[in-house]
Amino acid sequence: MTTTVDAERAWQDLQRIRVPQERVYDEVERRAEADRRSTYLTAGIMWLFLASHGLKLPHWGEILILAAYVGVLTALAVVYSRRSRVRLHRSRYTWRSLATFLAGAVLSGGTILLTGFLAKWLALPYGSLIQATLSAGAFVLFVGPANRWAVSPLRSRGLGERPLRTVHEEVRP
Fold first, then answer.
1. Which of 64, 60, 62, 83 shows the shortest CA–CA distance to 72?
2. Whether pLDDT at 21 is above 80
3. Each residue of 34-68: b (16+ CB within 10 Å) or e?
4. What pLDDT digit, counting tens, does each position of 44-93 carry?
5. Residue 109: which region, alpha, beta or left (left: phi > 0; alpha: psi -120 to 50)?
6. How far is CA 11 from the centre of its chain?
7. d(CA 170, CA 173)
8. pTM of the model
């Protein structure tokens, strides 16, 4: 059983499929590059949480601040995930997404622990403010480039790891 295929019609069909896909990738890349507001808001919340450790609160106060911190970060994540017009299928997330998340956790946690240790060892006044500032600064400096690096291979994955052939190219077996 053979069917004839009009090459020009097949090319138009392919373009109709590819153009919306390119728009999706454009939106994801734009979000990774331009959404600084959520980064600064998250860093500000982190700064407030870390700075509050210098207040010498009772144990129940520390637990209350920790619960508020987790709650605010969760609410922020929900709001920003709902604002996004584009959601990628789970198969589009590469190892880079996981690597970025883990590297961010290691960098943030390491910065918090190191600056906390140094502030106590050097007996700095207002050590929690120094710790909060350095940790939030490291977070802000890491997030932008890391997000761009994590989403950079999406466009090539969407094309099946190889460029599309044009209608005029000769197909060889």
1. 64
2. no
3. eeeeeeeebbebbbebbbbbbeeeeeeeeeebeee
4. 999 999 999 888 889 999 999 999 999 999 998 888 777 666 666 555 66
5. alpha
6. 35
7. 10
8. 0.68
